[in-house]
Structure formats: structure tokens, C-alpha cells
Design goal:
The complex is a heterodimer of chains A (540) and B (315). Chain A is mostly helical. Chain A has 3 domains: 332 residues, no CATH class; 73 residues, Alpha-Beta Plaits; 80 residues, Alpha-Beta Plaits (2-Layer Sandwich). Helices cover 44% and strands 8% of the residues of chain A. Chain A has a two-stranded antiparallel ribbon with strand order 1-2. In chain A, strands 3-4 form a two-stranded antiparallel ribbon. In chain A, β6 and β7 form a beta hairpin. The longest helix of chain A has 30 residues. Chain A starts with a helix and ends in a 14-residue tail after the last strand. Chain B has one domain: 3-Layer(aba) Sandwich (Rossmann fold). Chain B contains 9 helices and 12 strands. In chain B, strands 1, 2, 3, 4, 7, 8, 9, 10, 11 and 12 form a 10-stranded mixed β-sheet that branches. In chain B, α2 packs across α3 and α3 runs parallel beside α5. The chains are: A mainly alpha (540), B alpha/beta (315). The interface between A and B is large, with 53 and 41 residues.
Chain lengths: 540, 315
């Protein structure tokens, strides 16, 4: 195979995996089209599940597998995919970065379709710099932190980061914009506009959500994403070279890679084309020593060299490549940070002392400590939640739990017959429970209480039974008592007063969601009573 | 009229008198028309009520549904060739049909098939559900019915909720689920079940699933709200599914302990009569149910069955 073909093969594979990623991203939803086979859910009491293997890229990602193993002492489902990727890295170097990684592909496209730098400035930007050590610092920090007990890898893992950014910020943002256009069209009096808007909505809502999707801190997730994309203007593939911890892991493994760049110094005319097109700043120039750990194996230098001075070849000799430039300071710094951040994360007491009443975890979540050891903050559970209840936390889970999932009941509620979030969790931080289990055990995520001062019948303002009506448990966790209360004017009013039976309540929050009292609902959900915790309980 | 000079008192009185004269005359001219149309209405407005009852074990719900329509004069009486028909079942809750919280899927399937036989251009299933619509479609069996019959299952998206004037006593401007008002013919297909506030959920209360917005506040004056909705939505016919009814812990239920089999279907073009007959299955008196009583007072129908043409189908 000629090298030119290999470069095209790379581009095709890159496009394929990017499309696959986007496809699985869009498929991470409860479909509403009527072409799906409903008979399963209908005939037996089986749980509704997604058709596509939406966690594929998370399985493929050895960093997620490794940190989960270090912190949670468990192999994630499908971790062998990740092992396979590492094996490929041992043979071929960082091909994952340039062939498979969808985030890498996005950077690659941004950097090469319209390069921000021209000529010598590009050559300058593509020289290897000491900054490239930073990614090893992040990698070691994340690994040590995970071993000590706090798994933060999802904050920086490229797959988790990309998924979170796309699902929480990019798609909902585009969706909100499109929806506002459709709403204007749908409300116009011109029939054609109505039809177009309905049609467009039907076509696009699978990708952008069936309703307006909102996520706490989504603006910040989007901002981080935009900044990371912008960094490509300073240096191509800034993220991959300098920040990506997964790239660092692959870099360490490519020390023994058998695919090596062979340089012929005599043929070199010093045109610097190889440096200009280098994706990884891996010193492809024949005067320099090739940095295997930085090389993304994109084959650009091999392809571009007009003199044939550069060639990727397999060598059988067991000769080690150039050592990854980790640096002592990065190691020391990462050890310090890796040990101290998990401890700092405990100082707000969220993990040990006080459970935040607002921290309602998805059904099937592990106890808080184990949860934080496994949660990648990837946002899959949030994307898949059909009511948009699951949101990234801000401070509710403390610093250690930033961007982990939490249910906001004024925004959605936990559907009684749904257990999708657990079925898609790539690491098992939310256990894959069946709907039957969820109902029969039952799995409680919290409990509710009535705010009598705000409640319409309790305060004598109006009769209302909405919370009791929507309560899904059987027998109902909210029951009514007939009573006569006095209206604000003093007249008598016959009402039914709602009471909560804490034994029955599962904390699904539909009562809070549907409560007629807006603003601060008159019935509210708190995390106390969640079955995953031994301590955070109310009843004996 | 000239405005460049001030109007004198005499002039203004004269103008006022003249205009009130025009209006009175125009109003009076309308009078014979109104009385005429009223007279026509009462002549043809002899409503009917058909009750289907499945006596034998394992009778076909589908067959019973079709027979009930036959007894009422056939589906062609309600649906013409080329019509867009909207069916409003009650599929508010993501519950299996055995819990009686939602319309029986076989009844729904039978009605869709009848409409298709009558030559309906399109049959749409539309309900603004309480639980997430996708879950409801899957678990209540409606999704399967739509799949098999080819009817459209309308997802209650926000752009389909349009502000409309209900012109009710209690409700003025409200968001309405448009497929239910844009269709040529509407068929109301509720399930009969207990409700903790309005005592029963039947046909007229089913229209709460036809509006959007902050409909939870409707519960603060539920009976009058239901009557307002019932005078806004005017179905061709109401078919109440009382094959099995939920007798307590409604409207969502969730246990077969609350379910009683009645094997009954009630079809009527009078929404009040249909609800009244169904309420009797629960051992209640129609006049004791707030919205049925108010609806008769508002002239939406009657629960005096002697005024109706009555039929009974037994299988």
C-alpha cells in the first residue's frame, strides 16, 4: 500500500469513527418513533432498553477502564476493548489518537482545514515544547487520585469530555435555537410554515431532544469546550499534545511500539514540510530525534516528504523508542496533587458527614463513596433521561462530585417505570437495575415532605390533590384526609389535605414536578431516605 | 362626520340614538334565524346511548366495540370518507393495561380500524400525557396499536400546544393540543376510573389531557374547569371503555386489586349521558358528581335517559 493511500485510509477511518460517535450520541435517548418494537415492554414487564451500544467509545477507552480499576477495584463491562486498544498502541503507537478518537478528529479537522498559522509560524508552533509534559502530569495525577479514592478522570478524559460537551451544551444549544425558529413558524397563520415547522421538528427532535433540554452549568460545559477548540489556533491539536491524559497514557505505551519512523538524513533538503504538517509535534525532522510518545502516527510526514527521507517501517529489533519526556517535576507534582486533591475534596464533608438534601442520585446509584470512585461525569445518564431530570451538579456533591449526576425535580422527575440511566452507565456507578427491581425492592432515591405553608389546601387557598393523583406507588405514598379549613377571608372550605407516608415514598419527585405551586413547590424531594445510604435515613 | 368643529350636545345625542337604532334593527333581523336554527337543532338532536356488554368469558373486546358502533348506526354516521380523525384515548400514565389506568388497547385498535374502513384519510392518536409520552406509548400498548394499524401517534410537543380562547366561565385563554381541534372529526375514547378529586375520570374529564400549560391548577376548581373544557372540545361521539374499571386509588392506580371487570362499553353522542351512565357502574348517582351535574345545567347534554334513544348490545 502506498503511503498516499494510507493517509486517505486514515481520513476515512477518522470520519467513520467520528460519525459513529455522533450516531451513538444521538441514539443515547429514549426513541419516540413508532417503528420501534413496543411488544417487548407491552407483553411482559421487561425494562425498556436502548438498541445501540451507546457505551462503545467508553469501553474502547483504556483510561476509563484503568481509573475504574484503580479506584473502584472493578473491571468495567467491556474493558477488554480498552485492553485491545492498549495492545494496538504497543504495536503501532498512538494510532488511537489519529485514527479513532473522535475528539482528536475534531481537532485535526479544525487545525488542518483552515490552519490559523502560516509558513514559518506553523513550523515554529509544531516544534516540540516542554509544555507537552503537562499531559503526563494530568495522567499521573488522575491515576494516583483514582488509586487514593477520588476518580476525577472523567473531567479530562477526551471521550467523556466530548460526550458531555456535545450532549449537555452543543446539541441543546443548537436545539434551543432551532426550536425558537420552529415555534415562530408553528405559531404563524400561514399553513405552509406550520407544516414545514412540524416536519422539521419531527426530523430534528431525535437529535436535539423532544422538548427543550436544560442542564445546570451547561453554559460552563460549553464554554470549556469552546476554549479547548479555540486553543487549536495557538497550536494545532493543542489539546492532544499538551492536555490529553489519554494521549499521555498512549504515549507511555508507545515506548515499545514496533512501528517506527525511519529517517534518512542524507536525503533531507531541510524544507521543513514534515514539521509543518506534524500533528503531534513529535520532531519528525531528520536532524531531530523522533519522539515516539508524541507521535500520533498520522503518517503526514511520511506522505509529505518530497525527498523520501522519512518512512514508517516495522522493525523486529526490540529496541526501545525515545523515552517519553515526562520530567521529574511533573511526576513529583502529580504525586503531590494526586494525594492532596482527594483529601481536599473531602473537606467540605459531603462524602462523610453531611449528605446534601438536594443531592438526589439516579436510581441504582452506588453509595456515595463508591459512586465517586466510578462516576466519569460523562453525561450519558443525563442525556438518556427521558424527563431531563438528571443534571450535572454544581456544588451539591461538593468539590469532589462536580458535574456528577443529580436529579432536579422542578425540571423533570424520575419516571417510575424507567431504569435507563443505569443501563447506559459505562462504569457501573449507577447499577444496571431492571424496572421490576426498581419497583419491587423498591429502590428509593429520596423522600418528599409537604410544605404546609405553601400547600394550597393546607393554607386554605384552594382544593388541590395533584400530588396524590400523580403518586405512582401502590399503595400511594401520598394520602388525603378530608377536612374543613378556613379560607383567607374566613369562609369555610372543604378540602382534602395531603400527607406523606414515608414508608411508601420512593422519592421519584413527580409530585414536586407537577405541583401547582410554582417557584418553590409545596411538596419537595430531599435525598434523605435513599436506599443506597445507611446513614442518610429518616425512618427506623 | 366632521371632526374639525366641536360636536354639540344635540348632535351627539342624535348620533348615539341613530347608531343604537341601527344596532337594534340589525339584532332584530337576526332573531328569526336564531329561532329557526334552534328549532332544527332540537328536532334532530335526539341523542342516543348504546351499551355493549360482554357476557361470555373470553369475549372479543374488538368485536364488542364494532358491534356497539353498528348498533349506533355504523361508523359512517360519524366518519366520512377523506376525514382526518383524531382519537383522544386516555393514556396519561405509563401503566400496563391490566391496571385500568388507560384506555384498553383493543378498543382503541377497533375504533381505528372502523375509521379506516369508513375511509378516513388519517387517523391520529393524540393525548397530552402526564408521564413521559414515550414511556406511555410503550407501556400502555398504544405504540403497538399504532404500529399495527398504521395510525399516527402524535407526540405532545410544545409547538403543538397553541394558545386558544376557550370562552369558558372559568377558563379563558389556555394552551390547547392542536391535533384535537384541527381534525375533521374527534372521537373521545376515555377509560372509566376513580379519581381522588373529581370522584370519577370519564369522558368529559378526559379533555384535561387535551390542553397543555399549567393544567395542574385546573384542580383548584375541577368541576367547572371540566365543564369549560367539555363545551370547547366537541367530539362526534364518546366511547367509554369500562371493560375493566379502577374503583379506587385513581387516577393512576398501579395494582390489580383496584380493578373490577364490568365488560361494558358505553357509546353516546351526548357526553353528559355517557359519563352519567358510566358513573352508575361505580354505584354513584350522576347528579352527585359535580361536573356531570354542571354540564347538564350548562346544556351540554342530559342524564335523563328517557330523552335518549337507548340500545343494548350483548355478546
Amino acid at each position: 500500500m502506498k503511503i498516499r493511500h494510507l493517509v486517505w485510509l486514515r481520513r476515512i477511518i477518522q470520519t467513520f469513527f467520528l460519525c459513529l460517535f455522533l450516531f451513538l450520541l444521538v441514539e443515547s435517548r429514549l426513541s419516540q418513533d413508532i417503528y420501534v418494537d413496543y411488544s417487548i415492554a407491552f407483553s411482559a414487564d421487561n425494562s425498556i432498553r436502548l438498541d445501540q451500544p451507546v457505551t462503545f467509545f467508553f469501553k474502547l477507552n483504556p483510561l476509563i477502564g484503568l481509573t475504574s480499576l484503580l479506584s473502584g477495584h472493578s473491571f468495567i463491562p467491556g474493558f477488554l476493548w480498552g485492553v485491545g486498544v492498549l495492545l494496538i498502541t504497543i504495536f503501532l503507537g498512538r494510532v488511537f489518537c489519529s485514527f479513532i478518537c473522535p475528539f482528536g478528529t475534531i481537532h485535526h479537522a479544525i487545525g488542518s482545514i483552515r490552519p490559523a498559522l502560516k509558513g514559518d509560524r506553523m513550523i515554529q508552533a509544531n516544534q516540540k515544547t516542554p509544555d507537552q509534559k503537562i499531559k503526563y502530569f494530568f495522567l499521573l495525577f488522575l491515576l494516583i487520585g483514582a488509586a487514593v479514592g477520588l476518580n476525577l478522570s472523567g473531567l479530562m478524559d477526551p471521550i467523556a469530555l466530548l460526550f458531555r460537551s456535545m450532549a449537555m451544551a452543543v446539541l441543546p444549544g443548537l436545539g434551543a435555537g432551532l426550536r425558537s425558529v420552529f415555534d415562530v413558524m408553528a405559531n404563524s397563520d400561514i399553513k405552509v410554515f406550520n407544516l414545514i415547522s412540524y416536519g422539521a421538528e419531527v426530523l430534528l427532535s431525535p437529535a436535539f431532544g423532544y422538548n427543550v433540554q436544560a442542564y445546570q452549568t451547561a453554559w460552563f460545559i460549553g464554554l470549556v469546550f469552546l476554549i479547548i477548540l479555540f486553543l487549536n489556533r495557538i497550536r494545532p491539536r493543542f489539546w492532544c499534545r499538551i492536555l490529553c491524559p489519554l494521549g499521555a497514557l498512549m504515549g507511555i505505551f508507545s515506548r515499545v511500539s514496533l512501528l517506527k519512523l525511519k529517517k534518512d538524513q542524507d536525503k533531507c533538503t531541510n524544507c521543513n514540510l514534515c514539521v509543518k504538517h506534524c500533528q503531534g509535534a513529535a520532531s519528525p525532522h531528520p536532524d531531530q530525534v523522533w519522539e515516539a510518545a508524541e507521535c500520533l502516527a498520522c503518517f503526514n510526514c511520511h506522505n509529505i516528504c518530497p525527498e523520501g527521507a522519512l518512512a514508517f517501517t516495522f522493525t523486529r529489533q526490540p529496541k526501545l523508542n525515545q523515552k517519553p519526556d515526562i520530567g521529574r517535576r511533573a511526576v513529583l507534582g502529580s504525586i503531590l496533587a494526586g494525594f492532596s486533591v482527594p483529601l481536599l475534596g473531602r473537606l467540605d464533608g459531603r462524602m462523610d458527614k453531611i449528605a446534601d438534601s438536594r443531592l438526589i442520585r439516579p436510581p441504582g446509584s452506588l453509595p456515595e463513596n463508591d459512586f465517586l470512585k466510578l462516576c466519569q461525569r460523562c453525561g450519558l445518564c443525563m442525556k438518556v433521561c427521558p424527563t431531563n431530570a438528571i443534571n450535572p451538579t454544581l456544588g451539591e456533591a461538593g468539590m469532589a462530585g462536580f458535574w456528577t449526576p443529580r436529579l432536579i425535580m422542578t425540571q423533570g422527575y424520575c419516571e417510575y417505570t424507567c431504569s435507563l440511566c443505569g443501563s447506559v452507565c459505562p462504569t457501573g456507578a449507577i447499577a444496571d437495575i431492571t424496572t421490576k427491581e426498581k419497583i419491587q425492592r423498591p429502590i428509593k432515591i429520596g423522600s418528599v415532605y409537604v410544605d404546609r405553608g405553601r400547600c394550597l389546601p393546607w393554607s386554605g387557598n384552594a382544593p388541590c390533590i395533584v400530588c396524590e393523583e400523580v403518586c405512582p406507588t401502590s399503595p400511594k405514598a401520598i394520602y388525603l384526609k378530608k377536612e374543613t379549613v378556613s379560607r383567607p377571608g374566613g369562609k369555610k372550605l372543604a378540602v382534602q389535605l395531603p400527607f406523606v407516608d414515608l414508608k411508601q415514598c420512593v422519592g421519584c419527585g413527580i409530585c414536586e414536578n407537577k405541583c401547582a405551586v410554582k417557584g418553590l413547590p409545596a411538596i419537595r424531594t430531599i435525598s434523605a431516605g435513599e436506599s443506597r445510604s445507611l446513614e442518610n435515613q429518616i425512618l427506623l | 362626520m366632521k371632526f374639525d368643529k366641536p360636536i354639540t350636545r344635540r348632535e351627539s345625542i342624535r348620533t348615539l340614538l341613530r347608531w343604537s337604532g341601527y344596532i337594534t334593527f340589525a339584532g332584530a333581523a337576526q332573531w328569526p334565524l336564531y329561532t329557526l336554527s334552534d328549532a332544527w337543532a332540537t328536532e334532530t338532536n335526539k341523542g342516543f346511548i348504546v351499551e355493549g356488554f360482554g357476557q361470555t368469558d373470553g369475549f372479543s373486546v374488538k368485536e364488542l366495540t364494532k358491534k356497539v358502533f353498528e348498533a349506533a348506526g355504523g361508523i359512517k354516521r360519524f366518519v366520512s370518507r377523506g376525514d382526518v380523525v383524531a382519537i383522544k384515548p386516555n393514556i396519561s400514565w405509563a401503566r400496563h393495561p391490566r391496571f385500568a389506568a388507560t384506555t384498553h388497547p383493543e378498543v382503541l385498535a377497533a375504533v381505528i380500524e372502523l375509521c379506516q374502513e369508513a375511509g378516513a384519510k388519517r387517523v391520529r392518536i393524540a393525548d397530552n400525557t402526564i408521564h413521559d409520552a414515550r414511556q406511555c406509548f410503550a407501556i400502555t400498548g398504544v405504540g403497538k396499536v399504532a404500529n399495527e394499524t398504521g395510525a399516527d401517534l402524535v407526540y405532545p410537543r410544545s409547538s403543538l400546544m397553541k394558545k386558544m380562547k376557550l370562552k369558558g366561565n372559568r377558563l379563558d385563554v389556555w394552551r390547547v393540543f392542536t391535533p384535537l381541534v384541527e381534525a375533521d372529526k374527534v372521537i373521545n375514547l376515555p377509560v372509566a376510573k376513580h379519581h381522588s378529586l373529581s370522584s370519577l375520570t370519564l369522558g368529559m374529564k378526559n379533555w384535561i389531557g387535551g390542553v397543555g400549560g399549567s393544567r395542574w391548577s385546573l384542580h383548584q376548581d375541577i368541576h367547572r374547569s371540566i365543564v369549560d373544557l367539555a363545551q370547547f372540545f366537541k367530539p362526534e361521539v364518546t366511547l367509554i371503555d369500562a371493560i375493566r374499571i379502577m374503583t379506587r386509588n385513581g387516577p393512576s392506580g398501579g395494582s390489580t386489586d383496584y380493578v373490577t371487570f364490568k365488560n361494558t362499553l358505553i357509546l353516546s353522542d351526548d357526553p353528559v349521558a355517557a359519563d352519567a351512565r358510566a358513573s352508575m357502574l361505580f354505584g354513584l348517582k350522576p347528579e352527585n358528581i359535580g361536573y356531570i351535574h354542571l354540564a347538564q345545567k350548562a346544556g351540554l347534554g342530559t342524564y335523563d335517559f328517557s330523552k335518549l334513544e337507548k340500545k343494548r348490545v350483548v355478546m
